[in-house]
Structure formats: structure tokens, C-alpha cells
Amino acid sequence: MRTPCLLLLAAALSARAEGPVAPSVVLPLDRYQELASRETPRSLTIVEAARLEGSFQKGVFLVLSGRSMGTLPPVDVLQGAGLRLSDCGSDALLSRGDQGEVLLTPLKPRFTLRCALGRPAADKVSVVVHRVLDVAGVLSDGTVEVSEGERGERTLVATPVPEETRAAATGAALRPTAVGRYRVTIFPDDTRFRWQLSVHNPNRICAPFVLTLRPGESVGQVTSPSPYESGKGTLRFEIPPGNVELAVTGTTKDADFTPPFEAAAHYLLVESHPLFRAEVATSGQRISLAEVGIASQFRGGQGFLLMPGQKATWAATRLETLPSTSYAVSSLRSWFFVGADGQAVGQSDLVLTNQGATELSVPLRAVPTYAAIEDVPTVLTKDKQGNLWFPLGAGQQSITVQHKQTLPTALGFAAGALELPGVGGVANLAGVELRYGSDWTPLFQSFAGEHRFALPEFVDVFLLLLLGLWAERLLSALGMPRRRRLAFAVMTAVVAGANGAYWVVVFALAAG
Fold first, then answer.
1. Is this model's pTM higher than 0.85 or not?
2. Residue 35, SS3?
């Protein structure tokens, strides 16, 4: 009966030696997969809009646009066993599912897919879409009706309308009106233009809007929400009812501008590259750039208001460029301290705004001892001319240079010129501060046309005169000859004034 007790005791000791057991939770597999999937980023595809556009005469197109994130998953968006799509774009892929539905697989986070729809024998196009936020359509020669089903699907039905019926329903077709804002920019190699057009279609159906191109004008890019065709010297747009914004950019070989369509007024901006100056001749009215309503790329643009039949011509003149330091010096301040041995230790702080220079060459005959750019010490280097050299960055920056130079000294006097670092330009603010040891008294200083003399104050001069007069009278009473006592009185006053020892001399003379 002792064996079970020994086993139980051993088990208890073993459990105590191993320590506490970590807690654990048992979950079903489907619940664990649900919790683990929350850590992965969500994948979702949303089709924001579906549009029918074009015409029955030239082709009906279905345009799908939307966004996708994560792994760009496919989405069931179209339905119809007899739906025929062709010439689709490259932002997404279309494929058929097992039950005949059409799946859209995006290839980009932001996609737009445009496909041509095949026309059935009845000349009636029908498309059923799922999970689309906005559904609409505009055809130049037909009508588009949208109906919603019981399960949330939407059906777009496009029906052609004969030309006679369209004319009877709308009466006399009104021509779209537009406001044109134009920018012509003269560059060294070519002349570029940008047209910004605000077109309004007052009809209830699409209406054509034609831009006429001149032989020297070449179109590079057209931005339009509605379909357009590029013909020989023309751009033809199908403008839906309402307002549409168009933009046309390109180049021109001509030195004049004629509006590409007829309107009551046109707004023109003519500008040029900084290397050129444009002289514009026109019978139109000169207006401000703000009234033109189109952004300028360079300064010095000219705005004009052109009425029907008016145009503008210009002549571009290349300007001569002058050499420039490419930086502006804001301030140059220097401090000097002259020691007893005549050695001047100085520091110069330079603040400049760099506009394109890569380096700064500082002529300096003094001996440089330290330099820093933006308070960061830099290595002292020289260029081929022997000038102090600094690399420059863009924008405003400060440079500090410490240097030393020696003034010639003789017989207790020091005279010379202290050199400031050269900056290659005129500083907006320049200043110099001179400091001396107690062994020196400045007699004359000059900087930037300003001169300073060490003149004594009126009280000191008056005391020196009294001291010299008293010394002369005292020596005269002692019987000293006149010439000798005058010379002695002047020397006494000079010595006393130079050393500031008026009362010492007075007491010495009184004691004598």
C-alpha cells in the first residue's frame, strides 16, 4: 500500500518543480479562421458608375469606373447571356462565370473600363448591372432609360430615335455656346497653347461642337468627358445636355492666334519664357490676368479680350543674359580685437540667399583659422586663385569665418588696415566693431566713408589747460626761463592727459 503514496508524492513534487501551467483556450477551427482573417487587410472592389455613351450610328459604348483595394478581387457586375462586348480597355478584365454572369477583375486600384456593345437586330441595347452606385447614359441619336429590379439590379435600355422625331421633339436644334480661355506660351524651342472651354448645350439631346484647327496648330492632348473625333483640321465633340469642361493642349508654328470657334468674346493670355520678350499687337482690349481666368506659368503675361473677328499677333525677342553671382548677400558683420602685440583676431558672419550658385569664393589675405556653414564646422580649402572656398546649398544660409592679421607697431603706435572677407557682391547690411586691449587708445578709425577721431572731452581739455597754466606760473615763480617753462608745461599737460593722472601731477608740482 506504500507504492501509490510514493507515486502521488513524486507527482506532486514534479509538478511543483515545473512551475505553473500556462492557460490555454480551445476554439473551433472556423472560429479561429474568422479571428485570424481580421488581421489581414480587407480586399474590396466597388464599381462606382456605369454609363452608356456614343451613338447608334457610330457605336454604343459601356463605361465602368470604380476603385479597388487589397488583392483587387473580382466582382459580379453584368448579366445577360446574349451580351456581347468588344474592344475593352486595359484597366480591368471581363470574364464569364459559371452561371453566365460577367465578372470584372480590376488591374489597378483606380480603373476605368470602356467596351463597345454589339447591336442586336432590333437596334435596341439592353444591359443589366449589379452593385453599381450610379447608372446613367446619354446618346446623341437615342434615349437611355434606367429601371430597377426587385433584387436591386438596374437595367439600361438604349433605344434609337429617328432624326425626324428628334427634330420634332426639340424643335429647331440650338447650337451649343462656349466660353474660351486660351494661354499661349512662347518657349525657346516652340510655342505651346492650352485651350480651356466651358461649353453649354441647351438641348435635351447631345449636340455637336466643332473646333477648327489652323494648319500650324498640332494637338497633343484632349481632355473631355464626352466622346470626340479628330478630323482633318477639326475636333468634333458630342456635347451632352448641360455644361461640359474641355481642355486642348498642343503646339503651334504660327506667331498669331485666331479663336477656334465663334463666340461673343474670347479671353487670351500671351506669356513668354524669361529668355524672351513678347510684343503683342491686337485690336482687342487689354485686360488683367485675373480677368482671363487661366493660370500663367511665367511672370509678365499679357491678357486680352477678343471680340468676333479679332485676332492677336506677336513677335518674340530673345533677351541678352548678363553675368550674375546667382546669390544675394543680406548682411556682413565683422568683429576685431587688437591685442597688446598688435595682432588682430577677427570673426566675420556672412548671411546670403543662394539662387543657383554652387560655390562661394572668398578673397581673404588674412590667415583663416576657422570656418562654419550653418554652425557646422567645415574644412578650410582654397581654390586655384588662392581664395577661401565654400560649397553652397540652396536658399538662405549663414557662413562664419575666423581669421587673424597683424598691425605694424613702432614707438608705442600701431597703424594699418584690417581686411574684411570679400563676398563677390554688395551686402545690404555691413558693420564692423573694433575692440582694443587696455594697452591701446584708438586715435583714428575709418570704415565705409565714416571717420572717427579720438578727441578729448571738453572737461579734459579745460583741466589740461589749467594744469599747463598752473605749471607755467609755478615754474615762472621758480625763475625758470620762459621758453623752457613753456615747453615743460606743455609736456606736463600731455603726459597727464595721456595717462589720466591730473591730480598726481598737481600734487607733485604742489609738493615741489
1. no
2. helix
